[in-house]
Amino acid sequence: MLPRLKNLLGSLAVTALLASSAAVAQDAAKPQYGGQLIYAQSGEKFTLFMGRSTDQSGQDVWLHACETLVELDPKNEIKPLLAKSWKTSPDGKTVTFKLQEGVKFHDGSPFNAEAAAFVFNEAKAKKFIYLPLLEGFEKATADSEYEMSFHLAAPFPALLPTLGYRPLCIFSPTAYKAVGEAGLATKVVGTGPFVHTQFVKGEYTIFEKNKDYWQAGKPYFDSVKIVIVPDAATRTAMLERGEIDRTVQLGDLELARLERNKSVLVRTVPSTRQFYVVLNHKVPMLANPTVRRALNYAIDKAGIVQSVFAGRGASLMTAPTLMEGVVGYTDMRAAGEETIFPYDPDKALALMKEAGYAFNGGVLKDPQGQPVKLKLFTPRGATKGDYQIAQLLQTFLKQVGITAELTVMESAAFSSATNLGPDDAKYDMALLSWGIPTADPDQPMMYFTHTNAWKPYGANRMFFSDAEIDRLANAAHIETDPAKRNALVKQWMARLLVTAPVIYLPTLNLGLAGRTYLKGDEILAVDNYPAHFAWFDKAEMERQGVKR
Amino acid sequence: MIIGRMGFIILAGFLLLSFLFALFHMIPGDPAVLLAGDNASKDVIESIRGAYGFDRPLYVQYGTYMSHVVLGDFGVSNYSRQPVLGIVLSRVLNTAQLATLAMIFAVVVSLTLGSLSATFWGSSLDKTVTVGSLVGICLPVFVTGIAGIYFFGVYLEWLPIAGMASWANYVLPVITLGTYQAAIFTRMVRSCMIDALGKEFVITARAKGVAEWRIVLTHALPNAFLPIITLFGLGFGHTLGGSVVIESIFNWPGLGRLMVESVLTRDLPIIQASIFFFAIIFITLNMLVDILYTWFDPRISY
After folding, report:
1. pLDDT class for A333, splitting at 50, 70, 90?
2. Do B29 and A415 touch (CB under 8 A)?
3. Within a 10 A sphere around the Cβ of A108, how many other Cβ atoms?
């Protein structure tokens, strides 16, 4: 009797299991409500007040509580958010936004044209850090309750992608007036899907569901907890154990191990964060574009991807400075090549010879017969893999007879050493990385290669100056016709290939690892990994034994 | 004597803060530039200097800072604008908990193993303890910490990995940090005990027929204690230092982690207060050791 009862119970259990798994299959596609997302980041922002922070790590902190007028989707296309639609005047100097109606800030005050205009006017009056991104911005005006206009000194085609940059989100003017910048340094008050409730410096930030959120039915989580865990090995272990649901910025070897775990989903996509070697054009040798092109050919970029990034953590550049996903990008590789300036030490030496340098007995000598020695500054640990890349650069340069002396610095000291003007800069070469968070070429054109962007106040640490580069940038900067603008961007890239202001190195790939029960999270441009509209597949979560 | 010592602590704290202030204004790394980001214009950097008070002359900044510190105000974080004292004190407590528990663990383990090892000098137990402690000294805490996380946290799922939410969170970091110290202490306790057990008063006690356990506990151990106490005092300091690594691995919200993060962002007020409190704890511990000395050896006085 007993065995029969067992059988009966067994078959009942199987039937129940089948029924429940069918139900799960149905639900899997439909978002489920509830739960707390725990998301580990490697570091926290300097300050939560958007007006004083441009460090690009962890921009996701803002998106939970504070929303921008528009946003960039995974294809870097501009989508409406707090602005429903927009219109540019014929002269390109006024852009008028129709805003979402009936939206409230978390402190209960209404979101309207007056509030939005206040934020941008205040940004100008108080010189918020992001102000230089809003080129030519004169003032914002509230034309009616839900219509706001941007007034520009000159047409600015990059305005919309710039407005999608997270720090330009619309915070509550009421809260700002009450507690000021200092008060908002630890509290985000906006219109977002989650209300910021707790901030413990260096430990965690908690957001609770906004019950009055204007996008009906969203968000799905009850709360989101962002924890700061600096050590990548610890983040990996926490994810494997289920103490956290997702994390970013893991090492390539850690990602490779996580890939073998069936409960973890690992995703890698190219980012806009690229490495490059600043060449100081004030150094006579490096003022010569032929020499700079030679240096580009001397570096084995594919080798760097293989040995520093385990073949997966970085991608080869297919155009100078811009990459896929950035407006105006075109593949600039020569036919059949896998990257721009493909590795070719013979070609490098031939170009050096053309520039008057002689390669004898493994040593490159300048026209005066002196062996070539260059100082290479590098940070250690500022960006994943930086120091290892610097060591490889030293090896590759040795092969064309150049002695590169490494100066290794921690990130703050490095930042200081590479923020000096042309007369004070001590480096011949410096290894840097930068990203294009707005996914628009305006930033690199105006702040990276332009003569007006020479350090100490731009990002032109090369002290590079080329009339044609500047002319193309100035023209693209005010060109409102996308096709014409893209043509200018292409000419600019072609000119970069000739002038080679820097040594172009690979682009970092973004790695995201999350438990498989987490659905609907994304990877966007530089350091953006939104999960504010993600949700848990609860049956799967239970099956994996994760309980909270 | 204690009053004199307290005076010394205050003087040391004052000199330390002055030194730190000078040091962090000499090393490269401008907080305004770090805060402003890469594309910042001159205007923006200047406006940050103004907003955060970095533009005032150094002696004014120094004077303001020191006069506030005297009143117990360590300023606000450069970035989060929260009062530094609140941030640092909660971290000091977390680190103190970790270090104290690790020290208790290390003291208990080393006194037990060291005494046993010395009592049974040359036995297989002695050899095991000696080899074990040598291995313990050679293994850095980041190796044992990560190994512990994977074995007890991920594989067995017995213990949580990170944070300090419950008592279970304490087990791995305390044992990891404590084991390393215990390994160092055990060797010292063992040799001090071997030394003490060879003294004439021990031979006399044995001749009187005193039980062996009694000889070890009441005769040899108190006499071996003086050098051991010095070592424990210094060891506590090392435990505080070692907690910097442990705090990173186990994501322990302690002073060490805070200090490292603040150095990287040049959050000067927090760095100064963190180092200040580290130093004060260290000095206080040394004072306690000195007091314990007089208690264990009445011949010593200050």
Report:
1. very high
2. yes
3. 10
Burial of A307 (C-beta count, 10 Å sphere; 0-12/13-18/19+) = middle
Average pLDDT value for chain A: 89
Instruction: Give the nearest chain B residue to A453 (CA atoms).
Output: B39
Between CA A326 and CA A485 the distance in angstroms is 13
Cβ–Cβ < 8 Å for A505, A479: no
Cα angle value B92/B97/B100 (rounded, 5°):
115
Partner residue facing B253 (CB), from A203, A231, A234: A203
Cα(B173)–Cα(B145) distance, integer angstroms: 7
Residues facing A409 on adjacent strands:
A379
Question: Encoding tokens for residue A268?
Answer: 């890698």
Nearest to A202 by CA among B263, B238, B167: B263
* Opening angle at CA B21, ends B19 and B27, nearest 5: 95
Residues of A in contact with B264 (CB under 8 A): 410-412
- CB A241 to CB B38 under 8 A? no
Contacts of A50 in chain B (CB under 8 A): none
**Tokens 């970029």 appear where?**
A301
Taking CB atoms and an 8 Å limit, are A241 and B153 in contact across chains? Answer: yes
Cβ of B81 and A181 within 8 Å? Answer: yes
Instruction: Give the other-Cβ count within 10 Å of B202's Cβ.
Output: 17
Chains A and B form CB pairs within 8 A to the count of: 140
User: pLDDT tens digits for B143-158?
Assistant: 999 999 999 999 999 9
CA dihedral of A478, A479, A480, A483, whole degrees rounded to 10: -160
**Model pLDDT for residues A425-460, shown as the tens digit of each residue:** 999 999 998 888 778 899 899 989 999 999 887 889
Q: How far apart are CA A444 and CA A434, in angstroms?
A: 10
H or E segment at B296? helix B268-296
Count of residues making up chain A: 548
Say if B263 is an interface residue toward chain A (CB within 8 Å).
Answer: yes
Distance, in Å, from the CA atom of B235 to the CA atom of B109, rounded to the nearest integer, reads: 14
Pairing label, strands A373-379, A403-409 = parallel
C-alpha B263/C-alpha B251 separation (Å) is: 18
Lookup: tokens for A513: 């690892």
Q: Are A60 and A194 in contact (CB under 8 A)?
A: no
B24 touching A, CB under 8 A?
no
Number of H helices, E strands in chain B: 13, 0
C-alpha triplet A242, A246, A250: angle, nearest 5°:
105
- ipTM of the assembly? 0.80
A492 Cβ contact list (under 8 Å, min separation 6): A441, A445, A449, A469, A472, A473, A476
